[in-house]
Amino acid sequence: MASGKGLLPLINVWGSLNMHRLFGWFRNKPQEHEIPVNLENIPKHVAIIMDGNGRWANRKGLPRLAGHRAGMKNVKTITMAANRLGIEVLTLYAFSTENWKRPQEEVDFLMSLPSEFFPMQIDELKANNVKIRMMGDREGIPEYTKRSIDSAIEDTKYNTGLILNFAVNYGGRQELLSGIRQFANDIVLGHRTIDELTENTFDQYLKSDGLPNLDLLIRTSGEIRISNFMLWQLAYTELWFTDVFWPEFSQAHFYEAIRSYQGRARRYGKL
Predict the structure, then answer these.
(1) Do 67 and 109 form a contact (C-beta atoms < 8 A)?
(2) Which one of the listed residues 12, 58, 83, 99 is annotated catalytic?
(3) Is 186 annotated in the active site?
(4) pTM
(5) In angstroms, rounded to a whole number, what is the distance separating the alpha carbons of residues 248 and 224?
(6) Residue 116 is inside which H or E element, if any?
(7) Can you tell me whether residue 15 is helix, strand or coil?
(8) Which of 7, 44, 177, 269 has the fewest Cβ atoms nearer than 10 Å?
């Protein structure tokens, strides 16, 4: 049997080899920030109908409001994932014009979420160069909700990265009617003529004015409809639906949607 002194060099060699392998594994281990999508074909504008908060909560035996809070927390996860991809605009359907029909307690809770979300996340959003924007009818939104949103918009107005666009008190049909009324009023006032009515000029009368065309719409929770969301803007948008509830919609799911988008041929009517 070899003596302890004779084994010592072997132990040292074995230890050195394994330490080398161990450090090599750490060096070559895929990092969480690595992105499994083609960065040469990233959609400029992605929108999400964040659906399924209440059903997620019910499935877990929790009150619906707990589902909305969990959904709010997931906004940060997906925002950071979009930011890492270099997406220019992420539009989130936060509250529709139809959501006022829900129980008052739920409406009040949803209207309070901006006051909770922005103070917690604004520093990180600013650090990541994210710019906040709101799209919707301000009339009817509580003053405390508008103050929270306006404060976040003001705090990030000089940021030049991802635009995080919240659709609040938004409805696609109402947006179109409002745009038509504004254009008609400009004709009456002599600022426009009927011959100036084109797709490009009408875009200027919509809530999404100044944003790039909508490339990809994601809807969570298994529903397969667009629910009065961005009706004009969806004309040539790719649609992606998933059964996953919004609170469980992860970065991996988001990347899956992007890969699906990248696998499609966008012909716009051409061959």
Answers:
(1) no
(2) 99
(3) no
(4) 0.86
(5) 18
(6) helix 104-127
(7) helix
(8) 269
